Amino acid sequence: MINSVDVTCVPAVTMALVKDVMACAPSGVLWLASLLLLSAWTHACPHPCKCAGTTVDCSELDLGTIPDDIPRNTTELFLCGNKLTSIPSGGFSGLANLTVLYLDRNQITNEGLPRNAFQGLRSLKELHLTSNSLTAVPLGQLKAVRRELVFLDLSENSILQIPTGAFSSLRRLRELKLRKTGLQQVLPESFSGMDR
């Protein structure tokens, strides 16, 4: 019979549940404790970020890479004001529930965004890439998020032109921000294929 379980990461409410189960059904205690520990581990907040519910805030931490252990249930991820220059291929894979991604005020370049940088983000509705080092609209990379994306902010990047049909695959896009980009000319064909 198990008399104690190391559950230092489990909140007090969960500890009370474990104690109740241990008193009632000792044979299932190990299974329940393992399940609870796995659940706590799966939703752990990556160090040194801050988490609240399904929001993970890793802003202003001088990060040079994306944390590896972002919980899979994350819906909002803040990586603003760091030192990111690139996003690795599949860097957000496993975050299928992510709806909002803030990558503002980093140093991300077009070369640092491989075609599958946003692969697996099938629920992404908002993408914030303000104040990076982009010199062109990341066309190939945006195709991975084309199904749900409704908001895209590319402001304060050095984007001088927008190719014809650049946003045609983003059928649900409703808001596009291009403030302070240095755009010299915007042709109507740049937005061909868009519903609105």
Automatic annotation (TrEMBL):
It is found in: Membrane. Keywords: Leucine-rich repeat, Membrane, Repeat, Signal, Transmembrane, Transmembrane helix. Residues 1-44 form the signal peptide. It is a single-pass type I membrane protein. Residues 44-76 form the LRRNT domain. GO terms for cellular component: membrane. GO terms for biological process: axonogenesis; positive regulation of synapse assembly. SUPFAM superfamilies: L domain-like. PROSITE patterns: LRR. It comes from the Eukaryota. This is SLIT2 protein. SMART domains: LRR_TYP (SM00369), LRRNT (SM00013).
